[in-house]
Design a protein that fits this description.
alpha/beta; Rossmann fold; four-stranded parallel sheet; four-stranded mixed sheet; 7 helices; 8 strands
Length: 253
C-alpha cells in the first residue's frame, strides 16, 4: 500500500503497545518519520528500539515520555518532534479507553466520552503546535471538549447571527435563527461575537452590532443582510483584538 506518506512526520500517542504501537509501525512502513510517546518510559524506549531495528534507520524514530493529557506534556512532545524532525504532518491520538461492546448499543454518553478523549486532545495539540493565540470557530456548531476549553480559556470565540442571549442555544443555528427573528416580529437583529464555554451560545459577549429587520423581509432577505454585516464585523473585531483595543478575559465581556 502506498499512502503517499514518505518522509512525513507523524506523532503517535500511547504508542508503547497495542493499537498505538501498531499504528506507529504502519506509518513507519509507509516511510514516515515517527515520534512515539507514552507515559511509561521503559516500555516506550523498548518499543522505539524495536521499531528502529525494524527500520534500520535510527534517525527516523524518536521516543518522548510525556503525559499528553496535560498541556505541558503535549507541548513537550510537540517541541521535541519539531526540534528533531522540523515539522509535524500527522497526529494519531490513540487513547486506550474504548468500552467495547456492540456498536448500536453504545450510548450517547459513551460516544461523547470517546470524542472527548480522542478528537479534542488532537485539536488542542494542533493548536498548541501552531502557537495559536486566539481561536475563532466561525460558526462551528459542536461543543468543544474540556481539554480545548481549558487550554484556551478566554481565547476561543464564535459568531452568532442574532443578538444574544435571544435566539441562541441548542438548535438555534442557520435558517432557524432568521426564522425565529421574523416570527417574533423583531425590528432589528444583528451579530454577536462571544467567548465559547461548555454550552451553546452562553459565553460572555465580546461585541455586538445591530442589523435592521424591514417590513416584508423574507428569510433570505434578512439572512443576506446579517451575513454581509457579519463578515465585516468579524474582521473588525479580530483587528481590535490584535491591536489590544479588546482584551479577552475568561468569563468577562
Amino acid at each position: 500500500m502506498n499512502l503517499q506518506l514518505a518522509d512525513k512526520v507523524a506523532i503517535v500517542t500511547g504508542s508503547s503497545r497495542g493499537l498505538g504501537k501498531a499504528s506507529a509501525w504502519a506509518l513507519a512502513a509507509e516511510g514516515c518519520r515517527v515520534t512515539l510517546c507514552a507515559r511509561g518510559a521503559e516500555a516506550l524506549n523498548a518499543a522505539a528500539e524495536e521499531l528502529t531495528r525494524t527500520m534500520e534507520k535510527p534517525d527516523r524514530v524518536l521516543a518522548v515520555a510525556a503525559d499528553v493529557s496535560t498541556p505541558e506534556g503535549a507541548k513537550t512532545v510537540l517541541r521535541h518532534t519539531v526540534e528533531t524532525f522540523g515539522r509535524i504532518d500527522v497526529l494519531v491520538n490513540n487513547v486506550g479507553k474504548a468500552g467495547g461492546g456492540d456498536l448500536l448499543a453504545t450510548s450517547d454518553a459513551e460516544w461523547q466520552a470517546a470524542i472527548d478523549q480522542t478528537l479534542f486532545p488532537a485539536i488542542r495539540d494542533v493548536l498548541v503546535a501552531a502557537d495559536v493565540d486566539v481561536v475563532f470557530l466561525a460558526g462551528y456548531m459542536k461543543k468543544l471538549g474540556p481539554l480545548v476549553l481549558r487550554a484556551f480559556a478566554g481565547r476561543i470565540l464564535n459568531t452568532h447571527p442574532a443578538l444574544l442571549p435571544r435566539f441562541g442555544g441548542p438548535g438555534m443555528y442557520g435558517d432557524r435563527v432568521f426564522e425565529a427573528v421574523l416570527e417574533a416580529g423583531e425590528a432589528e437583529s444583528g451579530v454577536s461575537i462571544h467567548l465559547v464555554d461548555a454550552d451553546y451560545d452562553t459565553g460572555a459577549i465580546v461585541r455586538q452590532c445591530k442589523v435592521p429587520v424591514f417590513p416584508g423581509d423574507s428569510l433570505d432577505d434578512l439572512k443576506a443582510r446579517v451575513r454581509a454585516r457579519e463578515k465585516t464585523f468579524v474582521v473588525e473585531t479580530l483587528e481590535q483584538i490584535a491591536k489590544g483595543e479588546i482584551r479577552l478575559v475568561a468569563g468577562a465581556g
